[in-house]
Write a structure and sequence with these properties.
By secondary structure, this protein is mainly alpha-helical. The protein has one domain. The structure holds zinc ion. The site of zinc ion (ZN) has 6 residues, from α5.
Length: 179
């Protein structure tokens, strides 16, 4: 979960979103973890993991990312001219933030794959390379030793590479500025 938020934050900075209102970053953090609302359905409404609306199903799909990023870009930033370059930038950013969630989940070692193309295609996908440990689905377990292991793996395989990429972007930008 922290990793999803972290990725959204670093990605936003790397894309050059500076001077955005706090609302922008709060929404980005919120959207980065939003796909996991399907856990509520799993625990409280008995929706099966493998079904369309189960965990890593529809809510982790690219279509869901498209829906939420459209709504966010249309409603949350009324001062930005719709369909202007900046508007598309915001739309694209939120789309990537939500899509990155499914992408990261598809690199985990356990559970089921991600239904990227739901509701059109029910196939669940994994990436060919899965270095991340699946996060325990219950909060108690998460804060036990298992959660720490997961976090350490995520720091190694996600946080550090993201920071390296970001430093690269930062360096290029700095060089450009200095001519
Ligand atoms: Zn997830």
């Amino acid at each position: 979960m922290f990793t999803h938020i972290f990725v959204a934050g670093v990605f936003g900075k790397a894309c050059g979103f500076f001077g955005m209102p706090a609302r922008f970053w709060l929404l980005a953090a919120f959207c980065s973890v939003l796909p996991d609302v399907d856990i509520v359905g799993y625990y409280y409404f008995g929706i099966k993991y493998g079904s369309m609306f189960g965990h890593r199903g529809f809510f982790h799909s690219l279509f869901f990312a498209f829906l939420v990023s459209s709504v966010t870009a249309l409603l949350a930033f009324p001062t930005i001219k719709r369909f202007s370059k900046k508007w598309w930038g915001i739309f694209g950013f939120f789309f990537m933030v939500i899509a990155s969630h499914g992408f990261l989940d598809s690199m985990t070692d356990k559970g089921m794959g991600v239904g990227f193309f739901m509701p059109f295609d029910n196939t669940r996908y994994f990436m060919p390379w899965r270095p991340i440990y699946a996060s325990p689905m219950s909060i108690q377990k998460f804060f036990s030793g298992a959660g720490i292991d997961v976090l350490v793996r995520e720091i190694i395989w996600v946080w550090i590479p993201m920071l390296l990429i970001y430093s690269g972007v930062w360096w290029v930008r700095k060089r450009k500025r200095n001519g």
